[in-house]
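Need fresh eyes. Consider my entry:
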Amino acid sequence: MTHKTTLVTMVLLAMLYLWSGCNTQNSTPAPSATPKTEDHSQHSMHMMQAMDAMMQRTQAMKMTGDFDVDFANMMIEHHQGAIEMSEIELKGGADPLMKDMAQKIITAQKTEIAKLQAFVQAHPVVAAQQQPMVGGMQAMHDQMKSMPMMGMVDQDFAGMMMIHHQSAVTMAQEELAKGKHAELKQMAQQMIVDQQREIAEFQSWLDKYKK
């Protein structure tokens, strides 16, 4: 074998070795890659299902005619919907601020549910032919259904929760206008303050995300 032939052979072998190394690297996943256990759009869909379930529960609820009791019962179901949405955010969300807000909502609204349940148990129904509880529940559901879902858990959670909170504000304002019990009216006033503050926080977060 001539010197020239040997040199060509060595070059070809070197090229084959380099090609083999590149091919092995391309077929191996990057160390930082993590398997996707569930598509984000599934979590967003589960949030909408939680809202549908809440609407079904409230529509099936028999109104007593006692505005305060009806408000308390409706708000219990309304809060439960927020808790279920927040639990989905904790499971599927990624943004630390959104997950923190979700945890705060769960804690606060579980506390309020307990207070509302205690009120219902302690106050016998007084059916005085009061005006029916409206509360904007159907408007909330219609808005959520028409909201474009992004399939991104944090963004969809913020958008849906803003609509959900606004309906709570509407319900609480009705309680202030038509309710009789000072204890419940005080709770309603605090709900308005808390929900409007969180609406502003969600909007601020969404505004930064859009930039």
Q: What stands out?
A: The first helix runs from residue 3 to 26. Residues 16 and 110 are 66 Å apart (CA to CA). The radius of gyration is 28 Å.
